[in-house]
Every structure is written in structure tokens, then in C-alpha cells.
Design goal:
By secondary structure, the chain is an alpha+beta fold. It has ten helices and 20 strands. The chain folds into three domains: 195 residues, no CATH class; 64 residues, no CATH class; 96 residues, PH-domain like (Roll). The strands form four sheets. Strands 1-7-6-2-5-3-4 form a seven-stranded mixed β-sheet, with helices on both faces. The two termini are 29 Å apart.
Length: 398
């Protein structure tokens, strides 16, 4: 968008009201959610920070707040041609490049704030795979201070039970979304950035590794293999799921995903009660690997469509069904090598898309239904931690 043009437009409010009228009853029915209206808003503008659980989180924010809200959104939604143009016209989201320091995004936020707009973002930058709030970039604190707006902590609870990131289905259960607290500018002016960040982090922390009602669907385990690739018994493995069962393709053990979000072994004792515990064990396993030694043979092979993302414009399909191989120090696509040392970032988007940032170019791999993009991100960050001398580093990119 042209920085000289007005960002806020009257039509954004009209679009918001139409969307509210159409989506509010549908969303309450589909997600079983109770959205508590923020009655203390009283015409003020805010910086809304939210935890990220479902694909509909931005609509929950829109139901709680009156008037248009300007959301930070990754470059992926701005790179799909006419759809992106329609979104820009209708709601003017603020673009931000994933896994990079995007100065322009900060400038755009300042512009929206100066024009009187309310801004919303998810400091995690990703939907949770495990049901626990993910790593947050501490820079959210400095952004909040630059904007000088009251910070509204918007909590979403139950979303992982209703719609896990790795699943294609919405389960019948209960959710809640609400503003839990507001941090006024006068209050955070007395805080250091670290203190403000801790306050935001604590306010958004949600742990759904617990029994909190039932979330019913016959396909509760389906596509959990998008998140899990380490078997507690086999190590690095592959899984396949159907309905409420996920099976390790190496050892054949089957795990059932219950409506309570609990896991149970079929005919054996499974060591993890919830996905979050399994996910943590998977991260620990990867953080114990010397991936720099896994360079002679592929650790994993996949098939995926390869596109080049012309950022903020479109995606150009380069190859359908390309052969993808993951090594401990690189990714190959149809034999073309992309060393981790030469990639500026590797990110996972949505359920099963993978972005590779190569110099000024962005390549996107979109696999089939069972494609696990997460392992590529984890291996990349493990490699970077090792070569940077941070072998004990735990952050695996998400």
C-alpha cells in the first residue's frame, strides 16, 4: 500500500458490520464459542494481543470489539492474486514478513495508530500445535511502547480442543474468548520492555494439556502426523492416521485420541497423556540430535508442489509433485540443494505449507494431506543452533 494514502477508510467499518451479521451466528454454532463483548471499549483504540488457536481467531476478536480492527497478517495471504486485492480493499490488513525483522510493518502499525485505528496481532506468529501457547517474540513490548495504545490481552480458551492446527475438522465442544485485562500506557510506561513482555506472555499463556470438557468428532486423530514425527519407541519415524487412531509406520503401535484430548495406547501403555507432552518429548529428542552428522542419506523424503512466492503479489507454480529430501544440513528439491547455511529462514504456514527463504526469493512447498512441514523447520533451527555454538538452545522455530 502507498504509505502516503489514508489507511483507514469508512468502508472498513461497513465491511466489519456485514461480516459480523453474517459470521456471528455461524461461528457460535460452528465453534461452540462464547465471545464476551468488550463493553469497556468506549470508543477508544487499542493494541489487541491474542493467543492463536484456531483459523477463526481474528473473527472472535472482531466479535468482541466494536468497529474495524486492523490485523497483522503474514505475506502468504497477500500473495494470492485477486483474493489478496479484495482483502486489502475490504479490511486493509497490515502485512508482515514471517520470520524476519519487518521495519515496514512497524511503520505501518504506527501509521494505523496515528489515524485512530485499533490493531490486533498474535505475538506467537503461529497457531499452536500442542495446545500450549507458543514462543513469542519479545519485540512485542517495544512495539507496544512505540504505539502508545492501551494493550488489551485477548484470551482464547478451548480452541485447541475444538480445532487443533493439525486437524481438518471442527469438533463439537466449548470455547471462550474474552479480554482478560488491559494494560494502560501510564502503567507500562513505568515498566522495562522485559517486564511488559512478561506481563503479555503471562496474560496469553494457555495450556490445554488437561481435561477441560469433551470435543467430539469421529476423526479426532486424523492428520496428527502433520505435527508428530518422533515415536517414543522408534525415534524418527512417520505416522498415518484414520479417524481416532494414529499409527507409527515403523513399529506399528497405534494411539487413540480421545474426546477428552487424552491419548491412549491400543493394547500398550503410551507414555504421554496429551499431545503437548508428546510434542515436548519430540522437541527434546530433536534437541538431542547431532543433525550435522545426518548428511549422507536423507532423513525424510516427501512429495510436494513447488511455487515461487512473489511477495505481496502472487505465487508461480514451478513444479508439481517435486521430490523433497531432508538432510541434517540441507533440503533438496528434485536434486537441487538448499543448504541451511544459505537460508535466511524456514517457516511453516497453515497446516502443511513450508516456506524456504533463499536470498531475496521465497519458495513454498505444499504437500499432500499427510505432509509434515514442521520437521523441516525443527531440523533447520537445530542445525542453526549447533553451528552458532548454541548446542543447548531449545527454540526449534515455532
Amino acid at each position: 500500500m502507498n504509505p502516503q494514502k489514508q489507511w483507514l477508510r469508512p468502508r472498513h467499518g461497513v465491511v466489519r458490520n456485514i461480516a459480523y451479521a453474517l459470521l456471528y451466528p455461524y461461528t457460535r454454532w460452528k465453534y461452540g464459542i462464547t465471545v464476551e463483548k468488550f463493553r469497556e471499549q468506549k470508543g477508544r483504540q487499542y493494541l489487541i494481543v491474542m493467543n492463536h488457536q484456531t483459523a477463526f481467531d481474528q473473527f472472535f476478536v472482531g466479535m468482541a470489539f466494536w468497529g474495524p480492527v486492523y490485523y497483522l497478517a503474514t505475506e502468504d495471504i497477500f500473495s494470492i492474486g485477486w483474493v489478496s486485492s479484495l482483502l486489502r480493499w475490504a479490511v486493509a490488513p497490515i502485512p508482515i514478513r514471517k520470520q524476519t525483522t519487518d521495519i515496514q510493518a512497524v511503520k505501518n502499525c504506527i501509521k494505523v495508530a496515528r489515524e485512530g485505528g485499533t490493531i490486533a496481532l498474535a505475538p506467537e506468529g503461529n497457531r499452536t500445535y500442542s495446545g500450549r501457547t507458543l514462543y513469542m517474540n519479545p519485540s512485542i513490548a517495544s512495539l507496544a511502547k512505540k504505539l502508545g495504545l492501551p494493550v488489551a490481552i485477548f484470551r482464547i480458551e478451548g480452541g485447541y480442543g475444538v480445532q487443533p492446527r493439525w486437524s481438518d475438522v471442527v469438533r463439537r465442544g466449548k470455547m471462550r474468548a474474552y479480554v482478560s485485562q488491559v494494560i494502560e500506557p501510564e502503567e507500562y510506561a513505568q515498566m522495562t520492555n522485559a517486564e511488559l513482555f512478561r506481563r503479555i506472555e503471562e496474560g496469553l499463556w494457555v495450556d490445554e494439556a488437561c481435561v477441560s470438557g469433551t470435543f467430539v468428532h469421529k476423526k479426532t486423530a486424523e492428520y496428527l502426523e502433520r505435527a508428530m514425527y518422533v515415536c517414543p519407541f522408534c525415534g524418527l519415524s512417520e505416522f498415518e492416521s484414520h479417524e481416532d487412531i494414529i499409527r507409527c509406520k515403523k513399529c506399528g503401535r497405534q494411539i487413540r485420541y480421545l474426546p477428552t484430548k487424552e491419548l491412549e495406547g491400543v493394547g500398550f501403555e503410551f507414555p504421554h497423556r496429551f499431545v503437548a507432552q508428546w510434542y515436548d518429548a519430540q522437541c527434546d529428542f530433536v534437541n538431542g540430535l547431532d543433525v550435522t552428522a545426518l548428511v549422507s542419506e536423507p532423513v525424510y523424503r516427501d512429495r510436494a508442489d513447488l511455487s515461487e512466492v512473489i511477495v505481496y503479489k502472487r505465487k508461480n507454480l514451478l513444479k508439481k509433485d517435486a521430490d523433497i529430501a531432508l538432510y541434517g544440513d540441507r533440503v533438496t528439491i528434485d536434486g537441487q540443494e538448499y543448504p541451511f547455511s544459505e537460508l535466511s529462514a524456514v517457516t511453516v504456514l497453515g497446516k502443511n505449507k513450508l516456506n524456504l527463504y533463499v536470498g531475496q526469493k521465497v519458495y513454498q512447498l505444499k504437500g499432500g494431506k499427510r505432509f509434515n512441514a514442521l520437521k523441516y523447520v525443527n531440523f533447520y533451527f537445530r542445525y542453526k543452533n549447533i553451528i552458532m555454538g548454541n548446542e543447548n538452545g531449545k527454540f526449534l522455530g515455532i
